[in-house]
């Protein structure tokens, strides 16, 4: 008799992906400036630690919120008791206003159409449960966040079919790529229920163009399917072109009374924009009342604590603080991204032009001995074990071209980033020197007379002398 369920014993979680294996190697030997200066530097984690001082300053200036008090009176007992899974109204109001602020108030959100979840991971999985049956499929443009293989598929049984995007146009989505993915799903006898995109993109660090968003809306309208726009990095856009939400394009196209209006859903989180992944605050926004109702019921399996909601409702309601935070955080991200790009350029490594996110999409194709994913993995192993940097190989993101890597820059100090750049620069120089030496050696051998080469070969391979 089987003692454990198939789900418990299956190997479809994705934990054996190089994306997660890199974390495991880091945890065995983590870099510390004092305790372990030769350890592995974590550059595979998309965390935003650049603006903690702003948050800590607000907490220091607002002791009532941090101490769970209202007008000086403790409300700890009230918060400690059971709360409705619909969430605190004041928090939902503050959250939708913050989401509008990030989007330049070009769009507004109705707090009755938002569902709170324990992070974006829970939000995306909940939407899968709401929109698809096991064995049905969602189309995702490549490269995509490696965790989606776990978040979207593992418990739901939903399949992912990649929309193959390439570097020839900066990995933008095209109409032929969308149609090819749809046809591929049909060949596999998979019913396509929708498309999921991240905007801004993880791992590209780029915002989607209006042309792409219009293309997606036309595609899902024609096919009669859903569109999920994961917009958890919307507040990290630090350069032009600015961020355009799918909701803005819906309104520009006057889709309010059309069927597609109810088939577009937005995922949001405070993990990236505010740098609070440990607070586990995510959200689903949908115009479909049935989706909102079903997702709200499902959210009882992953609620946001009342204490967290109360604290963040006070913080997000402070409009002066949020406006300053958004602006200052974006400036810091821009400076840090510029530092990484310039440092890598000095090492002879280029990055995809980006304007958002906590990472760069880095091109190391020229460091591969052959244009294969096997060689990409060999290079990645050297970078992890010899250079002592944990970065994410493109194959873990389902990239179609070997040699691309995601490198995070916002989860470490500037000093640590400079050290990482220096380590990588030294590694590239050593590879170039080794390659140059091998070329010279090969060239010298080719230029020598055949008899010299023969003597040398015979000498190198003769039997050892008896002693």
TrEMBL record:
Q: What class of enzyme is it?
A: lyase
Q: Which InterPro entries does the record match to this protein?
A: Aminotransferase_I/II_large, Ethylene_sulfur-biosynth, NHTrfase_class1_PyrdxlP-BS, PyrdxlP-dep_Trfase, PyrdxlP-dep_Trfase_major, PyrdxlP-dep_Trfase_small
Please give the Pfam families that the UniProt record associates with this protein: Aminotran_1_2 (PF00155)
Names of the cofactor(s): pyridoxal 5'-phosphate
Under which pathway is this protein filed? Alkene biosynthesis; ethylene biosynthesis via S-adenosyl-L-methionine; ethylene from S-adenosyl-L-methionine: step 1/2
Entry-linked PROSITE patterns: AA_TRANSFER_CLASS_1 (PS00105)
For the biological process aspect of GO, one term held by this record is: ethylene biosynthetic process
Report the residue ranges that make up the Aminotransferase class I/classII large domain in this protein. Answer: 41-424
Q: Can you state which reaction this protein catalyses?
A: S-adenosyl-L-methionine = 1-aminocyclopropane-1-carboxylate + S-methyl-5'-thioadenosine + H(+)
Molecular function via GO = 1-aminocyclopropane-1-carboxylate synthase activity; pyridoxal phosphate binding; transaminase activity
Please describe the quaternary structure of this protein: Homodimer.
Q: Which family does it belong to?
A: Belongs to the class-I pyridoxal-phosphate-dependent aminotransferase family.
Q: What is this protein called?
A: 1-aminocyclopropane-1-carboxylate synthase
Q: Which organism is it from?
A: Populus euphratica
- The gene designation is LOC105130489
